[in-house]
Design brief:
The complex is a heterodimer of chains A (about 120) and B (about 190). Chain A is of the alpha/beta class and about 120 residues long. Chain A has a domain of about 80 residues: Transcription Regulator spoIIAA, CATH 3.30.750.24. Chain A has 3 helices and 7 strands; from the N terminus they run E-E-E-H-E-E-H-E-H-E. Chain A is globular and about 35 Å long. With about 190 residues, chain B is α+β, with helices and mostly antiparallel strands. Chain B folds into 2 domains: about 40 residues, no CATH class; about 140 residues, Heat Shock Protein 90 (2-Layer Sandwich), CATH 3.30.565.10. Chain B is about 30% helix and about 20% strand. In chain B, strands 1-2-3-5-4 form a 5-stranded antiparallel beta sheet, with helices on one face. In chain B, a hairpin with a 3-residue loop joins strand 4 and strand 5. The two termini of chain B are about 15 Å apart. Classes of the chains: A alpha/beta (about 120), B alpha+beta (about 190). At the A-B interface, helix 1, strand 5, helix 2 and helix 3 of A face helix 2, helix 3 and helix 5 of B.
Chain lengths: ~120, ~190
């Protein structure tokens, strides 16, 4: 099975799959919530590096995780966001609550993604 | 419109009608199939898919419709728009129409002229108030993390969205999008 998650320190990186639809959103949701319960996570990083498709189910999943981490005082960011995903994040208003980076943020301690 | 271009383009409408877009000036356009002619109504190309309302089928349907619409020579952007809108409609049927029950969803898809028409029909619970349902951020399932953006996305990515719904009988979402507008932008 594809590896969707990585935990480094207090960072949880979610490697968003190629297609984030209703089906995949449910899988990520369950996995992420389990990790959020069992680990001390301060920041969620959504890595869209290989994502080419997302719909409103993806938005629901992101907002749900954002609410969960805000509850414990943490933050969420989205990285390696391409034009298509950016459009959907903008359209849905997610960009108002989550910092979005086209590449990697300048300082990303603990980020362990693949090559860009 | 110029007939001198017909020769250079190397394609012309066999109906010989000047109004046919095939015979119009399209210097930046590669010859397409013969879908573009409104005179040839028999050129309407239709397909129908019936599948179980399982979330794992959503990916398959998206790809099938995307492959079908390639006949219109769409841009990647246009394909992605249709895929997103379709995905929203199918997700609605799976989650709201049948509420997790496994029943059939039917997609009827046809292309005519430069437009793609997609109809997603289910025989689920139906929508009580369609207008309300189409409001952005309105959702009947806030606990299960539905964003309420489904219809808003469909409207954003397609040219036209219509919903027919009868409570207890089912819902049909009808969508239309014109393909090939990117060429016009280039001309300008």
């Amino acid at each position: 099975m594809e590896e969707y998650f990585d935990i480094t320190g207090t960072n949880l990186t979610i490697f968003v799959p190629r297609e984030l639809d209703h089906h995949n959103a449910e899988i990520i949701k369950e996995g992420a919530d389990k990790l959020l319960r069992t680990h001390n996570i301060r920041r969620i990083i959504f890595d869209f590096g290989k994502t080419s498709f997302m719909d409103s189910s993806g938005i629901g999943m992101i907002m749900g995780r954002y609410k969960n981490i805000r509850f414990t005082g943490g933050t969420a960011i989205a990285i390696r966001v391409n034009e298509r995903i950016s459009r959907i994040l903008t359209l849905s208003g997610v960009y108002k609550v989550i910092d979005i980076y086209e590449g990697l943020p300048q300082q990303s301690p603990g980020y362990k993604g693949g090559a860009i | 419109m110029s007939h001198s271009n017909e020769a250079t383009n190397g394609y012309a409408c066999p109906s010989g009608d000047k109004e046919c877009p095939k015979n119009m000036d399209r210097k930046n356009e590669a010859p397409k199939g013969h879908i573009g002619c409104p005179k040839s109504m028999d050129r309407k190309n239709e397909m129908r898919l019936e599948f179980d309302s399982r979330s794992c089928n959503e990916g398959f349907v998206r790809v099938a419709v995307a492959a079908f619409m390639t006949q219109l020579n769409p841009t990647l952007e246009e394909v992605a728009d249709v895929k997103t809108a379709l995905s929203e409609a199918v997700t609605n049927s799976v989650i709201h129409g049948y509420e997790g029950d496994v029943q059939k969803i039917t997609i009827t898809c046809y292309i005519m002229e430069q437009e793609i028409f997609v109809e997603v029909a289910d025989k689920g619970c139906g929508i009580e108030n369609v207008e309300k349902a189409m409001e952005p951020l309105f959702t009947t399932k806030p606990d299960s993390e539905r964003s309420g953006m489904g219809f808003a996305f469909m409207e954003a990515f397609m040219d036209e969205v219509k919903v027919k719904s009868v409570v207890g009988e089912g819902t049909t979402v009808f969508m239309r999008k014109k393909i090939g507008q990117a060429y016009n932008k280039f001309d300008q």
